[in-house]
Design a protein that fits this description.
Layout: E1 4-6, E2 25-27, H1 28-47, E3 70-71, H2 92-99, E4 106-113, E5 116-123, H3 125-128, E6 141-142, E7 144-146, E8 152-155, H4 156-160, E9 172-176, E10 187-188, E11 212-214, E12 219-232, E13 239-249, E14 256-257, E15 261-264, E16 267-270
Parallel strand pairs: 6-12
Antiparallel strand pairs: 1-2, 3-4, 4-5, 5-9, 7-8, 10-11, 11-12, 12-13, 13-14, 15-16
The chain binds FE2/S2 (inorganic) cluster.
Length: about 280
């Protein structure tokens, strides 16, 4: 029997019926259907049969697309806190309100931007950065990064000092939603386990919760731990250094690249200047 994972209900929908039945469980096949394939469905709808590499064109290079990030809650309209906003533009105020009910001061949501899957995280960094880490309130950590061989790559601030747009904008960070293991789509509190609990510990390790979790082979990523790392384009072998969030555990070799954002009014918009960082699944 396929292994099943508990869906993590949002505080607002504890009694909501699940799209997967009353059990509030999801197995790997369902996850892939509602996660991986759902996102590629968007791609197919918007871009026909073009390959994945084709969707990495900046909006200005093709259709003049929208830079706004859209919520993606297909199949989870009744479970996700943003379920009623499927394919609506993401608003910073939504995340701030959701984080207020969190032990850690965090909120996250799946989205689609410029035709690619993303995960957006809000961390109450501005509120808690000056408080003791022992209080369990999450804040961003600007860390040294090491590649999969253990070689030092650099500190996140080395790159953000050159381009400050890489810093979280209004306490929001957006990650590319493709696992660096085999390109499934990691989720934010899509399943309930020790890694996705509403708890936080400093250090970018694999303890505490508040991790993004990839159900395909259980890789974990810490959206509060920002670092530099390296990856490679699978098509041409070219390696690149990127700013990203840390891989904290599992078979994924490195963390996920950041897609910098800006807040336009209340709308979260992506900045399409580092699309080469998204090519490791080509
Ligand atoms: S694809 Fe994510 S852990 Fe394997």
């Amino acid at each position: 029997m396929a292994k099943e994972y508990n869906l993590k209900p949002s505080p607002q929908s504890m009694d909501a019926s699940s799209a997967f039945g009353e059990s509030m469980k999801i197995n790997r096949r369902q996850f892939i259907k509602y996660g991986f394939n759902a996102a590629t469905g968007v791609l197919a709808a918007s871009l026909g049969v073009l390959g994945f590499a084709s969707i990495l064109l900046p909006p200005s290079g093709g259709s003049g697309g929208d830079l706004a990030v859209m919520y993606w809650a297909k199949g989870r309209e009744d479970e996700a806190w943003y379920g009623g906003s499927h394919l609506q533009p993401m608003k910073k105020s939504d995340f701030v309100a959701e984080a207020a009910s969190s032990n850690t001061g965090t909120a996250g949501a799946a989205g689609v931007w410029n035709g690619v899957p993303v995960v957006v995280n809000y961390v109450s960094h501005s509120q808690y950065a000056g408080t003791p880490t022992s209080n369990g309130k999450a804040r961003f950590q600007f860390m040294d990064g090491y590649d999969e061989t253990g070689k030092y790559v650099g500190n996140f601030l080395d790159m953000s000092d050159v381009d400050e747009r890489l810093m979280p904008s209004d306490d929001i960070v957006m990650s590319f939603g493709r696992c660096t293991h085999l390109c499934c789509i990691p989720g934010w509190q899509l399943v309930a386990n020790n890694f996705t609990d509403d708890t936080w510990t400093p250090g970018g390790g694999d303890d505490g919760g508040t991790k993004m979790f990839c159900i395909c082979h259980s890789s974990r990523f810490d959206p509060t731990a920002l670092e530099l790392n390296t990856n490679r384009n699978r098509s041409n072998g070219a390696t690149f250094t990127y700013a990203g969030i840390r891989r904290s555990g599992g078979p994924a070799p490195v963390g996920l690249p950041i897609i910098p954002v800006t807040i336009n009014g209340d709308i979260i918009e992506g900045i399409p200047d580092y699309l080469d960082w998204l090519t490791y699944c080509d």
